[in-house]
Amino acid sequence: MAKNWPLARRKENLQQRARLLREIREFFVRNGYVEVETPHRIPSPAPESHIDAIPSGTWFLHTSPELCMKRMMAAGYDKIFQICRCWRERERGSLHLPEFTLLEWYRADGDYYSLMEECEGLIQSVASSIGLGQKIVFRGRKIDLSPPWERISVKEAFHDYTQTSVTEALERNHFDEIMVQDIEPRLGTEKPAFLYDYPAQRGALARLKRQDQTVAERFELYIGGLEMANGFSELVDAKEQSKRFQAENENRQSLGKRIYSMPDKFLAELDEMPPSAGIALGVDRLAMVFLNAETIDEVVAFTPEEL
Amino acid sequence: MYTASDLRKGLKVIIDGEPYVVTSFDFSKPGKGQALYRTKLRNMITGLTMDRTYREGDTFEPASLEERTMQFLYKEGDHYHFMDNENYEQIIISEGSLGDAKNFLIENLNVKVLMFGDRPIGVDLPNFVNLRVMKTEPWVRGDTSKADFKPATLETGYVLRVPPFIEEGELITIDTRTGEFSKRVKE
Fold this sequence. Notes:
The complex is a heterodimer.
Chain A lengths: L4 H4 L2 H20 L3 E2 L5 E2 L12 E2 L2 E3 L4 H9 L4 E9 L11 E9 L4 H18 L5 E4 L2 E4 L5 E4 H8 L4 H6 L3 H9 L9 E7 L15 E9 L2 E8 L4 H17 L9 H7 L6 E6 H8 L17
Parallel strand pairs in A: 1-5, 9-10
Antiparallel strand pairs in A: 2-4, 3-4, 5-6, 6-13, 7-8, 10-11, 11-12, 12-13
Helix pairs in contact in A: 2-4, 3-9, 8-9
Chain B lengths: L1 E2 L8 E4 L2 E11 L7 E8 L5 E7 L3 E4 L3 E11 L2 E6 L5 E5 H4 L11 E7 L2 E6 L3 E9 L13 E5 L4 E4 L8 E5 L4 E5 L3
Antiparallel strand pairs in B: 1-6, 2-3, 2-6, 3-4, 4-5, 7-8, 7-10, 8-9, 10-11, 12-13, 12-15, 13-14, 15-16
């Protein structure tokens, strides 16, 4: 028995994780995507109220590859994906690691609805390739992966699962608490679920819905109550994006957080980005659900505490 | 002063003038939303527990409790008897106030008894204690699967998961902060 038996006993999980990564790549290559790599160290992370970057010298470790990948889209790369490490300061819990693996992809020919369908295809195809089939068991529940998955708007979710409305929750500044306590645990328990059409102020880089400017074309994917992915129709209006970044920075300042310098090159090129949709999916969380893991610790070789 | 990001299992704080101990804790963050710290807290006087969710900027007053080093003597029903190592005074703490600590108390163990005024309201254990395995299934030799845990019952009656190579009668080290197996003790 190895001295480091917690690591030794994760061997099977890590072997499955390796297959999972290989099958994700297979799926995207088969569907005409090009795998790209962008720098992990960047000078200006996207200013967002509640995402904090870890400093690296005078620059930062990226919190997602979003800005660089969008610059590639603006330069004419129209179907790209990336699997990379990302860092977010102070995020640690049973579902969080400060260093984690993200799968991010962009396509120029679709909007957030087409990304939802692509998620269904990706996860179903990967599950069957690694030998899981149509149904998985997670936390004692059988979850059916066969499409179509559930689609529920944020407005409907507040109506179905809470005693308050979205507007009221935002006004009383309880949106996040209600989300975590009353809504998230109920999502994706029989089939995976897409929670979509977020309040406009909850989608700093997303396009507003044409028919209803109070919501952003943004969705989150949930499986077994776990948030898996965040996708949206991209905002490609540089002026509007710059205004939103400034507002996010002001919010950061009022929360006593560090302000990030404007990602000027990204903003300068954004107008050339075609109408697109993009999404980030947590690979560690997907591994958790596929391997029926209780915590994120069980699907990585080392947690920060074990180093 | 503590902030929400200092919250962890075992932390003691004052809420509405009374001491509470964090009995479970998790970090959560709804997509693009703010960091939330979900806790279960036990009132160290009444023993009642409650759920509370905190935000990043929230602050807490640490519960500064006087600590007296005492030896655990014996258990009688749900009363646990301790003796002050300096003045030999004996005190009783109820099982409810001990929380998870009751799983790791063996006779003659030195612990820190926490005093709220004159009142003993709980104990702080050493981070690691050694306890003997009273009952566990034997290990099937040649079974190379490393993925398995098996249950084991300790001399205090506490049941936990141990690696398959641990056998009955062995002494093992437990991390009292997590309640988990730490290592096998060489005797």
